[in-house]
Amino acid sequence: MHVTHLSLADFRNYARAEVEIAPGPVLFVGRNGQGKTNLVEAIGYASTVSSHRVSTDQALIRFGAESAIVRMRVQHDDRALVIEFQLNRTGANKAQVNRGAIRVRELPRYFSSVLFAPEDLALVRGEPGGRRAFLDTLVVQRNPRFSGVIADYERVLRQRNTLLKSARASRVPADALTTLDVWDDRLVELGTELMVARWQLVAALRPHVAAAYRAVAGDDHRTRLGLQHSIEGDAADPHLDDETAHAPLDPEVTRERFRAVLAERRRAELERAVTLVGPHRDELVLELNGLPARGYASHGESWSYALALKLASAHVLRADSVAGDPVLVLDDVFAELDEGRRERLADAVQGFEQVLITAAVGGDVPDRLRATTVRIAGGAVVEDDATEPTAPPESEA
């Protein structure tokens, strides 16, 4: 799978832009603040229905505009798709594929990409919520049906927490709070489904993470990863690389354990007015050389680990997809790497059908990834030898 054309209207700093994109490695180069990342951000949104830089869609709409439109032509073998989405300041966002309307959350059914950016260092060094979001994004990319499961789980969680707060304010005894049982049932059903999907994902990622880390770092620092479930307690084994880590997670056993722990923790939940167990409290545990990567990995090791997680994601999606490779995006990555890691990363990504790279300095990127170069200045594509941006052709969007 690869993007052949990108059209933007009122997206970030682009009033209008039309960009032809070749398969293979493509380098978007230009000074900082010119709009390189905005291009790949638009492409990434079509795969994850979110930005890797901001939490709200409003920031993606150009100042003074009421909506932003992104249109992409995507090619896989002899099949072509036109994917379009519109982000609105007021009202619901819209999406369509080949002129047929779809729900925005269905976009990952039609396009797949994996984006790595400096912000992804937080996967190793940041808080657990970022690692849960990483897993859930990939779960949805593997099976877009889970966007609905996750949305329903979050809705039930909010309503359950609201009920707990109301009960605490009214001083309702824990054993008299029978209305919570209905929400418990839904929380358990949806939460179990999500925990099983995450478990399967981590099992699929594990061998690819180890191989990708060796490829990028040039050494084997014994990467291990596993899930620590809150329903098992704070001291639970995170199942990093033992027999239980490779065995399937039994949905029925998980469901019953989840239900039992909710009953045990009800009094504590009522006192704190918050749901204390469930996948929203689980942790993806990352280990390096037998120690937690968070807090013990060096800067270079953390970069290698974060890159390995994203490269492993691309390999998992490649194995799952009938539409070929995901588009791999490396946003402002090479400037942060030493020469050895740059060359090894170039080796690791060469097998993908399309790799989109952004850089402020083209020389930071190995020569073999610069065959196709697109220069960006002031929110416009410029010719290689031009000193001023050329006027972009009229968009269809």
UniProtKB/TrEMBL annotation:
ATP binds at residues 30-37. This is DNA replication and repair protein RecF. It comes from the Bacteria. GO terms for cellular component: cytoplasm. Keywords: ATP-binding, Cytoplasm, DNA damage, DNA repair, DNA replication, DNA-binding, Nucleotide-binding, SOS response. It comes from Microcella alkalica. PROSITE patterns: RECF_1 (PS00617), RECF_2 (PS00618). SUPFAM superfamilies: P-loop containing nucleoside triphosphate hydrolases (SSF52540). InterPro entries: DNA-binding_RecF, DNA-binding_RecF_CS, P-loop_NTPase, RecF/RecN/SMC_N, RecF_2. One of its GO terms (molecular function) is single-stranded DNA binding. Residues 3-359 form the RecF/RecN/SMC N-terminal domain. Pfam families: SMC_N. It is found in: Cytoplasm. GO terms for biological process: DNA replication; DNA synthesis involved in DNA repair; double-strand break repair; SOS response. Belongs to the RecF family. The RecF protein is involved in DNA metabolism; it is required for DNA replication and normal SOS inducibility. RecF binds preferentially to single-stranded, linear DNA. It also seems to bind ATP. The keyword ATP-binding applies.
